[in-house]
Design goal:
235 residues; alpha/beta; Elongation Factor Tu (Ef-tu), domain 3; Rossmann fold; 2 domains; 6-stranded antiparallel beta sheet; 6-stranded parallel beta sheet; binds flavin-adenine dinucleotide
Length: 235
Amino acid sequence: MQNNEFHQAEITKIIDINPMVKRFFFKFAHDVIFQSGQFVIIDFGKLNHTYSSRSYSIADLSHGSVIEICVSLKENGAATPLLFNYKIGEKLKISIPQGRFILPDNLNTESIGFICTGTGVAPFRSMIKDLLTLRKYTGKIYLFFGCRTQNDILYREEFEELQNTHSNFHYTPVLSREDWNGAKGYVHVHYNSIFQTKPNAVIYLCGWSEMLKETRENLKSFGYTRSEIKVEFYD
Ligand SMILES: Cc1cc2nc3c(=O)[nH]c(=O)nc-3n(C[C@H](O)[C@H](O)[C@H](O)COP(=O)(O)OP(=O)(O)OC[C@H]3O[C@@H](n4cnc5c(N)ncnc54)[C@H](O)[C@@H]3O)c2cc1C
């Protein structure tokens, strides 16, 4: 169920990752309390669409009054072309954080998997930092991130740094359209090698449903149950 409490927030920083993806930072007049994995709803007022609001995952484990979101441009979309034209200082109506796509209270699994494409990595950035820095989770953490080329890898340096400093974090960006020294093809081949033997794990999937539905079916065929697979569809 959505929570309809909205507050005004101002864009204080915008970072272009590539022509199709931007990071937006919003400052509220008060501290924002949220659990890693949650999203906010932006009310655009009037849109050329049935619905005037869109949801965005909180992309960092930020504290205080600023939150970050990471948005991919849908060129024919109603909201994102508008959002991509906003400048620093623009004021928007944004909901309080919400959603049940969060980490379990009891981290009693031997591993946690995160599988995504594109901006589906946003809530995982927050959750992985939560696991490694706040909760000090000692089980294995796997992040499989699928995209086309190296230019599309989001937050690459940060995840590489986390992998270098935490021996239990395993980061696998997978490229489908560029030849490189890393993992190639589609993500499925790569997470299969870890999850096919069904280690005791909870696995999170996030992004556009096309890839995730196949992933969910694969994981079910390995024996994972509904409660062990958590999904956030962006569409
Ligand atoms: C809980 C939740 C969290 C979300 N978090 C994020 C986030 O962190 N970052 C983010 O970029 N988006 C996120 N989304 C998607 C976001 O809410 C919008 O749907 C998206 O920004 C497109 O809005 P639009 O008005 O430009 O396009 P619309 O006019 O709404 O789009 C039209 C159609 O295109 C599809 N579509 C839109 N974008 C894409 C895409 N990139 N790839 C494939 N199909 C697409 C939509 O499903 C829709 O059917 C989230 C959605 C949900 C439900």
